[in-house]
Amino acid sequence: MGLTDDFDEEDRPQLDPSTLAALQEFYTERDEREKQFEDLKSKAEDAFDGSKPLSMELFTESWQDSQFWYKDETATVLAEQLLEGVTEDSKIAVVSAPSNDRERYPIRPKLMLLEFDERFGVFKEDFSFYDYKQPFKLDPSMKGSFDRIICDPPFLNEDCQSKAALTVRWLAKTWEAPLKLIQCTGERMESLAHKLYGKAGMRTTTFLPEHSKGLSNEFRCYANFECDAWKFQPEA
Fold it and tell me: Are the C-beta atoms of 232 and 202 separated by less than 8 Å?
């Protein structure tokens, strides 16, 4: 007698119909996004010219890679502050913050997205693969060439934050004005952020970044300048 001879169909684990429907909807949406992305990637490899805006909905978040996209309002505010006073000679580096994507910059100077997720390679010359574990493994031409930088290190630990700071310092044209520097990261990283970027004038601001799906960790925006969107928090 086989092991399954007495196993009735009704003995098999069954999902609740509503749960099954939700699961099916999830897989359908995932498959559709993957198809959209593959189509986009194919076009990019052929002749992607950036003429059509890209939605972050095409790039599903990976919690394993600590990917949490900003709300549209947050991403727009951050982009506007980096664009304020921009000139044709300005260069913006977006480090590990892909939801602050290039579509936020209607008047766009040279912009480079440094990101581990190679799906963003659809941006072609505006994309550079970046692994914070190798902070200087980048095109040498980028060294000391950016005057506006935003960074959102993927992990809330000293190793990741410190190595990301090494990259930011390497990218920066200068470590003082007119450098515009923004970092969005957890509140518990505050003292480390001040230590790593203190010489650049970075302080905690009043602006609170928000994520599209929410986060349990309190997030803060740190910057070396004040603007219409935020002021410096009073120092303790």
Answer: no
Q: Give the whole-angstrom CA distance, residue 208 versus residue 195.
A: 20
* Residue, of 11 and 203, whose pLDDT is higher: 203
This prediction has a pTM of 0.74
Which residue do the tokens 């098999």 mark? Answer: 12
Q: Which of 167, 173, 161, 233 is nearest to 203 (CA)?
A: 233
Inter-axis angle of helices 158-171 and 190-197, to 10 degrees?
30
Provide the residue ranges of all domains of the chain, joining segments of one domain with +.
Answer: 10-47, 63-223
Q: Is the dihedral of CA 208, 147, 158, 225 positive or negative?
A: negative
For 65, the 3-state DSSP assignment is helix
**Is the CATH number 3.40.50.150 carried by domain 63-223?**
yes
For residue 196, give both structure tokens.
Answer: 């790593």
How many other CB atoms sit within 10 Å of the CB of residue 111?
21
Angle at CA 120, nearest 5°, toward 84 and 57? 85
Q: pLDDT tens digits, residue range 70-93?
A: 888 999 999 999 989 888 889 999
